[in-house]
Amino acid sequence: MKYSINRIQRPSLSSNTKLSWSDFTDGAKNDLAFRILEAMDMADYAKHTGQYLDIDGIKQSVNDARAPGLSTSGIEARVAAVEREFSSSDGSISELRATLADWEKRRDSSSSTRGGYTFRDEADVEALTSLVPDPEFYRYFLDIFSYLSLCTEAFSTYEQGITVHANAIKAAFKGVWTSRVRLSYEVPYPEVMIKTIEAADTVSGGGTKWGPMFHSAEAFEDQFRVGAHRRVTQGIENVYELTSAAVDKAFPLIGDSHRPGTDTRKINMIIQEHNRLGYQQTIALIDSFLPMHKTFKNGGLSSKDAWERVHVFAREFLAMFQKERVASADLGRPSALIWGTLKATDLGEEFRKAKFIEHPKVLSILALTSLEREGKSIAQAMASIQSEKDSIKALTGRIAKAETTIKALQAKVQ
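The chain above was modelled as a monomer; its predicted structure follows.
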């Protein structure tokens, strides 16, 4: 509301006396100044009073007030624009909130963290691979599948070694190690553990059977420190140690003077934590087989059937794991291979934290085993009853035949 200057109370003076500023009380002076400022636009006020003001600071304020952008109408326009950015559905604030929500959604549903760095999707991994101009950069990232694929020798004789190495070079790989890591994405199971064989005795097992080192619980269990369990575990440990040394050499923690723009310490931390998780998960998987076998045996299964149940679990787990690894449509990109192993290792960590045997997937197999055991018991009981019925029927027939013979004898005697 604007006030008229006539509403300001005049001093008590005669009509012919000239009005002086000193005739106003302090309160009247303040009131007059306030109402003048409130009644006038700042630009008009500056226009009419600026030439009478000599204090430099006030002059500058007046000059600023004269600027069109800082007039009352200009300030109101700016405030309206800011309010529009905050409240409008297409304003900057709304866009920022939508972007943050999208980031949170991506992080919660699919992000993967290694070495303190979070990868939301394959694009983030691609940003990492761009720092390392090596098309085989993926060979440093190991998981359960690649540990099992690498834990045994690729060949047993010199002649086989020459052939394997020559084939790797021919296929455009730098070496056998890289070729084995890359090809692990192409096979359904690590052959050291599970083989795919379509035969009469594997139909009921999904077309798979244990590898030679896992063919029975007795062979797998350590006997005099030479069992398959110990040999596989030692092979996994060797792969982990060799890879850790290779990563430290390729991406030193102290930096690399030959690559001044590359943070090798960051890359080292990411790979080393990932490989440590993969190593721990592989050992935990191997170590869970015998306790799982024992649990199935205590549930009433024979040793052979119990070990076959372990095979069912191993096969289904590795199938799920491999599905995560090859989720990307184009495995020709190093970033796709690395993103796949990151996500698969997250799945493996879920099982490892549940010690594998306590995971719901294993518990479902235990439940099926229990049902199967009960079913076998019922079937055995029914078979036993049927056998008794058959015996009774046979005995009844023999009694009837004996009675007929007796009657015939009695008729002859009479």
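The first strand starts at residue 112 and ends at 114.
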